[in-house]
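Quick one: structure tokens for this chain, please?
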Amino acid sequence: MSAARSQNGVSVCVSASCCGDVMSMPTRIERPSTLATVDLGNGHAATIRTLQATDAAAERRFIEGLSPQTRRERFLTTMNGVGEGLLQLLMAEDAEGPLAVVATLPGERGLEIIGVARIAPSGGRAAECAITVADAWQRRGLGHRLLEALRSLAAKRGIRRLYSIDAVSNEHMREFARAVGAHARTDPDDARQVIYELDVS
């Protein structure tokens, strides 16, 4: 599922929204240190937690380390690097707190990000979402665990439906959506894209 109609990958992208009447102040979501631990096999265990401001360098390395295909599936476009504008967008929070969760592993330069799931506020009780897993760690159940954490994050914001807009040619996303029970329909604005929808609860 993707962020803003143009962000996707082994993925899932979303748009989120705040609930409550106009007079109420948003409830800031607490930043838990760990949301889950995932056994990836071969002695590797990833930690899933909310994205932090100190993750910027690791986030850049994560995106730049994706294969061209995974990067294209994530962002629906070909890109060579990560500019400051895109990095700031990906690291942004809103008044309610974090908009993304990450999976990390210890690496040579400290903790390295191997998966990211995010939501992008869009109004109402729906949110566009994106889940991307590093190529070396795909097909180990990490995408499913990131989606669980993302649904929890979305539920705390009052979001009831996640959706993702992906290229019809994205077979990874089609398989993932089928596995998690997402509903698929053709994008009415572009027949080359498909919209996947999933209830939060």
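Residues 62 and 97 are 22 Å apart (CA to CA).
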